[in-house]
Amino acid sequence: MEDNVLKKFTTAKFISFAIGFFGLQFAWQMRIILSGPVTEELGASPFLFGLIWLAGPFTGMVVQPLIGALSDKTRTPLGRRRPYLLGGALLSALALWAFPNSAGITNWLGNVLHLNIAPWAALLFAALMIWILDACVNIAQGPYRALVPDVVPQEQHSIANSYISLAIGLGSVVAAGTAPFLKWAFGYQMPINAQFIMAALAFSLGMLWTCIAIKERNLAKQEEKNEEKFNFIQSLKDFFALSPEVGKICWMQFFTWIGNMCMMIYFTQYAIHTVFGVPDLSEVSEAVKATFDSAILSGTNFSSICFAIFNLVCFLVAIPIGILSVKYGNKKVHIISMLSMALAFLGMAFTTNPKLVAILMGISGIGWASICALPFAMLSQYIKPGTEGSVMGIFNIFIAGPQVFVCTLVSWIINQCSFSVPDGINYHWEYTFLIGATCLIAASIIASKVKEKFA
Asked: Which of the two residues, 272 and 380, has the higher pLDDT score?
């Protein structure tokens, strides 16, 4: 068969295809769970923590469309997508190492340069590492998603995206569960910087495996000849001209990711401050902080366990969701999954019982498995050959854009909703789940209006 004819993927090939995303999600999960404790220790308030999280959406809105379009037109011996997958993974690995060591690095730079380092310098450096990490994750993620329509036959798109969901779930389970498991099994508390190094290795090695195992097809010479220079405005017009249903899918995705990121960004802080009752420590003395070390550790480990449960469920239901979507349609399965996540969020808004919170996080994992797969499968039905990277990059705007709302307005709302406790103040972190549930319900309503295209 010719090199550019798409052959059906076997189970082994799907697994090799997904290993890189396992590493990517491993790194991303570590950033989700531990960025809050690291930045709060350096003095970040809830609102400042939200602003630091803006790194993700801003880089996503700028980097993914640009890199996606560039990868459509890239010609190297490695292929179109693989240079971005490898480059993003290796640069992310450096940022993952530097982020938890921000205080030590800034102090070392001060000594070398004979400078008086300001107290906020370490927080600024940590924020810079977050921005670099998020930019590099986006460099890898956009072209990775474009590989699905690039190398997988149309009839296997839902299954391919389900394998990505499976990799996301498994990568997150291992990332979130390793430290609590070592503590439970051997009494060893894995340091935060060691967890980030583990993530750096998983990302770089996993992506290397996929790049070696998956061969990109060659573009036909005529297709290569007819390529035009990238024009963002024209690409945006072409994107929405694909079908009237594309706009509905984008709005569905917009509200979905407001809801989803309300949990992703703030869950660890919710676990520490709401479930375990630790007051805000961003402006208290070191002596007061020391009295809550045990509670912070318990809250952080509990958050890791909950994320492990959340992603374990995602891992277990990812392939069944792909199979069900083939039988009943992407839309129906996705709506049911999102509504289950919305109900779980409402439950977490009104309880501080750790066992119940863990169960509700597990239920949320059903929605997460669907979010990671089915919107992309719905959109891929409308992609024209040769524009996969550009389309997936533009679609990412409706994932990254909502996060701006979550990082600014939602964090501002939390910052305004403080209350007094014996050791200072605390915040109503649980309000994020009310906002998240409302947005997921709105996304489900929009999804019900999509007229699904069947092969």
From this structure: 272
